[in-house]
Amino acid sequence: MDSSCNCIEPQWPPDDLLMKYQYISDFFIALAYFSIPLELIYFVKKSAVFPYRWVIVQFGAFIVLCGTTHLINLWTFTLHTRTVAMVMMTAKVFTAVVSCVTALMLVHIIPDLLSVKTRELFLKNKAAELDREMGLIRTQEETGRHVRMLTHEIRSTLDRHTILKTTLVELGRTLALEECALWMPTRTGLELQLSYTLRQQNPVGYTVPIHLPVINQVFSSSHAVKISPNCPVARIRPAGKYMPGEVVAARVPLLHLSNFHINDWPELSTKRYALMVLMLPSDSARQWHVHELELVEVVADQVAVALSHAAILEESMRARDLLMEQNVALDLARREAEMAIRARNDFLAVLNHEMRTPMHAIIALSSLLQETELTPEQRLMVETILKSSNLLSTLINDVLDLSRLEDGSLQLDLGTFNLYVVFREVLNLIKPIASVKKLHVSLNLAPDLPEYAIGDEMRLMQTILNVVGNAVKFSKDGSITITAFVAKAELLSDSRNPEFFPVPSDNHFYLRVQVKDSGIGISPQDLPKLFTKFAQNQSTATQNSGGSGLGLAICKRFVNLMEGHIWIESEGLGKGSTAIFMVKLGIPERLNESKLAFMPKVPPNHGPTAFPGLKVLVMDENGVSRKVTKGLLVHLGCDVTMVSSSEECLRVVSNEHKVVFMDFCTPGMDGYEIAIRMHEKFTKRHERPIIVALTGNTDKVTKESCMRVGMDGVILKPVSLDKMRSVLSDLLEHRVLFEAI
Amino acid sequence: MDIVNQLQRQFIDHSTSLHREGIVDDQFTELQKLQDENSPDFVVEVVSLFFEDSEKLLNNMARALEQAQGVDFKQVDASVHQLKGSSSSIGAMRVKNACIAFRSFCEAQNREGCLRCLQKVTHEYSLLKNKLQSLFRLEQQILAAGGSIPVAK
């Protein structure tokens, strides 16, 4: 070759085929090298998240340059100029630089890319886990909903059959059970009987003894227990070719108020349980899950509660029915009793009437006979007839009266009558008999006894007559004294009869009658029996025992009707006796000036003694007001004692003083203290004087404290004469006064 | 008779003025009601006792208030209370009212106020005493002249 050509020759002469293949490969390489970056760019553009764009650029550059190198290589197979070689060399240099840079870069990039992958894996796992948990929660929620629904269903009825049926049905549905069964303890408590099942409508009365180990195991645990499908309680379905599903049993406590079969359970203290058996569908691979077991336990408890409610309801219904029956029976009994009483009364009335007529005839005719000429023996006989028939007549009256009194159907016939006349009539009636027995009868009527009174005249006379008649009957000689007066306030309460505490008022007064005789007396042990029906004093039963023993009993009832009291005092046999009674009588309207028989109203400005001799104690430190109060009271006729200190007051006070006036507003003198001490000193109410506070201020506090401490009244100073007068009369009448302003 | 009538008229006027000026109130009338044959001098006795008592009390009060070193207000109050009680018992209205005012100053422990009240009380008391004494004199004159005490309305 000539040296003028600057071309570079390849090392060896070109082999055609070899060359051709190289040529083609280079070409394709170049093509690939150019298209790869394009593809990369295209796809990276599509993806939004690829973070390493500049890496792509680098990579792209590297590849492009490689491609260029291979492309330029195509020219070097044949003769090529130095320029081509230069270009080739530049390209190769660039490629080398870029490749090295890229290689270095990749050292950083690749670990990052790998870690991305790990994170992705981790997140996937987490997502799977959460999914699982979600699944669980959902299942629990489902269960909860089911339980609520079940409970609602169970509790919406109070009929136990419905409750149980519903339970089984709902459980079956919720848990997709094959079979549900309920075994109940029998009456004897030794066996469990199959009572309800889900699928079979009328279960055959299977029974299983209660003391099987598997049953004990279930009863002793408060949880649902898995039992074997082969145990007797689970073998409800006819055995088949299938594999039975898992069985679970739970106990249902039966609270002792429920009576499933009959009431006579021998032991109620031991807990009784029913057994609930649940079977999963056979041939399914289902297992009992924990949440399902929980559901079963909850339901079992709910059922127990619902059943006991149902039982309570049944019980109360039964009780109510029983009560209604009893009511009806009682009503009937009452009506019958009423009819009986009415019949008896009618009978008595008729009898009475029937008996009285002949009695009347006998008495009348015998009296008439007495008037005629008779021989002494005849006279005696007639007198005896008369006496006996009188007694008989009295007896009839008494019996009738008593029966009416007992019913409470007796009512007093109130009317205005002359009291003096009544007494005189009694006297007249009794005088003949008394004179026969040589008894002296005297009548003392107090001057303040009102002439007229309102009450039951007949019955009052009957009472007085009875009492006086008794006195005459039981006295052989001596005298009988009848005293009648108006009972005064202080004497109204008798220490013998502490319960009897009558309070006279404006239009009533208490008449007190005392009949004293000098007869045979009554021994102390007989005293209480006197007023009992038909009880006779044994010692006198032989002696002129004419009475039936009803007299005093009737008197007592009459006196009680008149809101009074009757009793007999006697110092013993042979020492005579005194019969005393008090009755409440009304005061007729027109006699208004003697409002209260024992407290005649004082005309104003004149000072007749309104409260004669009333002993009063006045306590006041202030000399002047003491003198004024004393003057007031003396003017009203009281007997006033004055003290000036609380010690003196407590020393001097006695049960003779009826009223104590205490000045209250002296500082240093504790009025409350005195009141309390006075209450202590006089324990019996009627012995204690009435305590009244005189004070200058009447605010509520003072009044309340006075009341609390036991004072009987509060008066505002200064006190006028009229006010003092009315205060005293109110006090003595009512023993209490709380507003005298 | 003429003298008696004159005296009686005087008595009535005096009595009425006492009531009108508020020196005595109805309680005094009540006191007069209590006078009867059993206690003919009741009113005089009570009023004399009142005068004795009040003079003692007023002296106590004056002495207590004069104490330069620490007035014992409690003591003063106690005396005023007594005076108030007595005066209300006989119906000396103005004295009583003055006492009420006096008490509030005692509670406030105001010496100046107390002294002023004491003056007022003393003044009222003197006035009352004069009037009552002239009333009693008139009564005696009437009785001496053979007349009867008219019941003033």
Automatic annotation (TrEMBL), chain A:
Q: Where are the transmembrane segments?
A: 21-42, 54-73, 93-114
Localization in the cell: Endoplasmic reticulum membrane
Q: State any GO CC term.
A: endoplasmic reticulum membrane
Q: Give start and end of each Response regulatory domain.
A: 615-732
Cross-link Glycyl lysine isopeptide (Lys-Gly) (interchain with G-Cter in ubiquitin) per UniProt, renumbered positions: K717
The residues the record assigns to binding ADP are N470, A471, V472, K473, D517, K533, S548, L552
* Keyword Membrane set for record: yes
Task: Identify the domain of life.
Answer: Eukaryota
Chief place of localization: endoplasmic reticulum
The reply to whether Ion transport figures as a keyword in the UniProt entry is no
Q: Cofactor stoichiometry and binding?
A: Binds 1 copper ion per dimer.
Recite the UniProt keywords alphabetically. ATP-binding, Copper, Disulfide bond, Endoplasmic reticulum, Ethylene signaling pathway, Kinase, Membrane, Metal-binding, Nucleotide-binding, Phosphoprotein, Receptor, Transferase, Transmembrane, Transmembrane helix, Two-component regulatory system
What is the stated purpose of this protein? May act early in the ethylene signal transduction pathway, possibly as an ethylene receptor, or as a regulator of the pathway.
What protein am I looking at? Ethylene receptor
Species of the source: Hibiscus syriacus
> Species lineage, top-down?
Eukaryota, Viridiplantae, Streptophyta, Embryophyta, Tracheophyta
TrEMBL record, chain B:
Residue span, HPt domain: 39-142
Chief location of this protein within or outside the cell? cytoplasm
UniProt subcellular location: Cytoplasm, Cytosol; Nucleus
Q: Which GO terms describe its biological process?
A: cytokinin-activated signaling pathway; phosphorelay signal transduction system
Q: What SUPFAM superfamilies does UniProt report for this protein, alphabetically?
A: Histidine-containing phosphotransfer domain, HPT domain
Give Gene Ontology CC terms: cytosol; nucleus
Keywords, alphabetical: Acetylation, Cytokinin signaling pathway, Cytoplasm, Nucleus, Phosphoprotein, Two-component regulatory system
- In Gene Ontology terms, what is one molecular function of this protein? histidine phosphotransfer kinase activity
Q: What is known of its domains?
A: Histidine-containing phosphotransfer domain (HPt) contains an active histidine that mediates the phosphotransfer.
Function statement: Functions as a two-component phosphorelay mediators between cytokinin sensor histidine kinases and response regulators (B-type ARRs). Plays an important role in propagating cytokinin signal transduction.
What name has this protein been given in UniProt?
A: Histidine-containing phosphotransfer protein
